[in-house]
Specification:
With 224 residues, the chain is of the alpha+beta class. Helix content is 34%, strand content 17%. It has one domain. Strands 2-1-3-4 form a four-stranded antiparallel sheet. Helix 2 runs antiparallel to helix 3. The longest helix has 46 residues. The termini are far apart.
Length: 224
């Protein structure tokens, strides 16, 4: 009987397993918070990368044009295709056209008017089912478009000028689990004024006998 009492006494006063028990109870919480923090940090970085990508595409779109001292710069389908290919490279591991979509619009003033805004041309690339929030090519010819951008903060083009407006929608790819992400869809816009005098009549083909493919907005594909 005395041995039993001694054993019970030792068990009651034993402290060797207290730390292990506390760790076992607290480790799942600490691990969960750590994983959550890592996921939110990666989400914030992805937001920044998508935003920078949109600005880069808009900037590139504002600079393109076949240089000539005798006429305004011409934009070719191959130029736009090059911009999309560059965006694919710049996106890196994000794989922008596999998990998202890029929409590039040229906002201009309707010919023969002073300030009526319309989307002259629009090109898209990416497998995600997303279209411009402001309408497709030709939207605004009836005067229904105030500009492009958030209500009250729309950007608009000046007469005989153009604004390149880029929209991106991307589905965030979780680092750990989508359960840590409240909204996996990232949407961003960017805009730049065209830098030089540009021929606004159309987008040209360098070789009409063998035309370059057009990144039309009714096609949902990536870079082949």
């Amino acid at each position: 009987m005395s041995r039993v009492r001694q054993l019970v006494h030792r068990l009651v006063h034993a402290r060797s397993g207290v730390a292990a028990v506390e760790m076992a109870l607290g480790l799942p919480v600490v691990l969960m918070l750590g994983l959550w923090g890592a996921e939110l940090g990666n989400l914030a970085i992805t937001h920044m990368r998508i935003s920078q990508l949109a600005m880069q595409i808009a900037d590139n779109g504002s600079r393109i044009g076949d240089v000539s001292m005798l006429e305004s710069l011409k934009v070719y389908e191959s130029d736009i295709n090059d911009i999309m290919a560059g965006a694919n490279i710049q996106s890196g591991s994000l794989d922008i056209f596999e998990h998202g979509r890029v929409v590039v619009s040229s906002l201009e003033v309707v010919p023969a008017t002073e300030d009526t805004q319309y989307i002259h041309w629009q090109r898209c690339k990416g497998k995600r089912n997303f279209q411009s929030a402001y309408g497709g090519e030709g939207t605004g010819t009836d005067g229904s478009l105030d500009g492009m951008g958030p209500t009250g903060d729309e950007v608009s083009a000046a007469k005989d000028d153009a604004v390149i407006f880029v929209e991106i929608e991307y589905v965030y790819q979780p680092l750990v689990s989508e359960k840590f992400v409240p909204d996996p869809v990232i949407r961003t816009t960017a805009t730049f004024n065209v830098r030089d005098d540009r021929d606004l009549t159309q987008i040209y083909q360098r070789n009409t006998a063998s035309p370059d493919p057009e990144a039309r907005c009714n096609i949902y594909d990536g870079i082949s």
